[in-house]
Design a protein that fits this description.
This protein is an alpha/beta fold. Helix content is 48%, strand content 14%. Helix 9 crosses helix 10. It binds zinc ion.
């Protein structure tokens, strides 16, 4: 059967009360697909030869299919641009995590014109657990989002902060095209605080071949970028990092064994309590390079505080000095730096963009949830007030999952504020963080989810516009030429 856009559109418009997302309409293999909305329910409309590959309800000539994982996979077979792909070779890449599964159309609009390859599906195991989603759910939401917008320039899917081979397998089998390995559990942060005598004792207890290897490789001559190390410096670095290096190498080989498509490997050492020194970064990188491990990006723990959903705090000049050294190491080994918790760090973006020459990966996630809460504050004051109070009451519980430092006592009492003031809470650091870390607890509350998701369906254009503005501000500072 031959099918044209016009005949498909005519069939769609014959359905009572239908809204068609016209940018989504596309045809392949005698089959036409589009995203449509009936009331507040979105559906994938399918007509033609491959309709049997999708499950849904026949409505005249058109099949209306729920936005399920299975239907997303069928869609990706017909339209390969809806499937995630490796971003290797793209200089500027950005992780745009979407915990709600609603943000992709806004993200796609926000990146237009900035030359950035987006990683639209990006979740950690912690985020999946807190939202009750799977990697397949996250990728399906991104696939339907890019299809809705008619976006065909490619996107990645990041299994973020994975710690074990089981998690890596789960992410890769679900379709992730990027693995961010979090080595924090194999980094000995206690050793970082040892006295010199404790370093001596612990180092002496390491296997002789480990000690010999590091001493031969790194002592007695200056190293690129970081210069010569003292014996004491090297021993401390070995104690802190050598298990993490072994773990990273073993996970890298494992990915190589099980992958069925290209996978971008990122090494993250950022979720430790201590700042990564250039010497530590260099030795970890050199050890991995010597073993044939080729990361696409590495995330050190940069100086200063990169807390969730608020501005950078710390000395910007110190940050810039360290960042230059980390960039020199990244250049030496041929990978990109990755900046985690990049949401809302506007004061560091100019440095990040300039020092990296636009060859960098930046991750954002939680700020997109806050943009959703901004729409709630603007359009549903009663729901906002209830969510706000809930987040405040559960702040201590939410702090189990995220490190934040703002003081909730600084938040103005919401009962004393009129409705017009409510969006201001999305500008105050203390209320931003309180709302930010409460997302999992809120989404698991039936009263909240039952009101929030229909509200967001009715206000999606306001949400997309907010994302274009807010993510656009990130991109503007990251890419500004002067
Ligand atoms: Zn991180």
């Amino acid at each position: 059967m031959s099918i044209t856009t016009d005949s498909f559109l005519a069939a769609l418009n014959g359905i009572d009360g239908v809204h068609v997302y016209e940018r989504s309409i596309d045809t392949a293999e005698g089959t036409a697909c589009a995203i449509v909305r009936l009331g507040l329910q979105k559906r994938l409309a399918v007509m033609g030869d491959c309709a049997d590959n999708f499950s849904g309800d026949q409505k005249g000539a058109v099949k209306l299919c729920p936005l399920s994982v299975e239907n997303a996979q069928a869609l990706q077979v017909l339209f390969p641009y809806a499937a995630p792909k490796s971003h290797a070779g793209h200089p500027f890449t950005m992780g745009l995590g979407d915990r709600l599964g609603l943000a992709t159309p806004g993200h796609v609009r926000a990146i237009a014109g900035y030359g950035v390859y987006p990683v639209l599906a990006q979740q950690s195991i912690r985020e999946l657990t807190l939202t009750g989603r799977t990697f397949a759910d996250v990728i399906a939401a991104a696939a339907f989002g890019v299809f809705q917008e008619g976006y065909r320039d490619g996107y990645g899917a990041d299994g973020d902060h994975l710690k074990t081979k089981e998690e890596i397998r789960y992410a890769i089998e679900s379709g992730c095209t990027m693995i961010t390995l979090d080595c924090s559990e194999h980094i000995d942060i206690h050793a970082a605080a040892y006295s010199d005598a404790e370093v001596e004792a612990a180092y002496g207890a390491l296997p002789a071949d480990v000690r010999e290897h590091y001493e031969q490789a790194y002592l007695g001559r200056p190293l690129p970028v970081v210069g010569a190390l003292t014996v004491a410096e090297l021993r401390r670095i070995v104690l802190v990092f050598y298990r993490a290096v072994q773990h990273a190498e073993s996970c890298y080989r494992y990915i190589d064994q099980i992958k069925t498509r290209d996978v971008d490997f990122e090494l993250s050492i950022d979720e430790t309590r201590t700042i990564t020194s250039p010497a530590e970064h260099f030795i970890v990188a050199q050890e991995l390079a010597a073993q044939g491990v080729r990361p696409v990006s590495v995330a050190p723990h940069f100086s200063g505080e990169f807390e969730k959903g608020i501005e950078y705090s710390g000395n910007l000049n110190d940050f810039a000095r360290d960042f230059v050294a980390h960039q020199e190491i990244a250049d030496h080994f041929g990978y990109k730096l990755s900046v985690h918790s990049g949401s809302d760090k506007f004061s560091v973006f100019s440095t990040v963009g300039r020092v990296t020459g636009g060859r960098v990966h930046v991750k954002t996630a939680g700020t997109n949830w806050l943009e959703a809460m901004r729409v709630v504050a603007e359009h549903d004051p009663a729901l906002y007030r209830r969510a706000h109070k809930f987040a405040l009451e559960h702040r201590v519980e939410a702090e189990k999952y995220y490190h934040v430092s703002t003081d909730p006592k600084e938040i103005p009492n919401v009962d004393l504020q009129n409705d017009a003031y409510l969006p201001e809470y999305l500008l105050l650091p203390a209320s931003r963080q309180t709302l930010h870390i409460a997302y999992g607890l809120l989404l698991n509350e039936k009263w909240f989810a039952d009101a929030f998701f229909p509200f967001m369906a009715a206000h999606e254009e306001e949400y997309y516009a907010g994302l274009v503005r807010h993510i656009g501000r990130h991109l503007l500072y990251l890419t500004a030429k002067h």
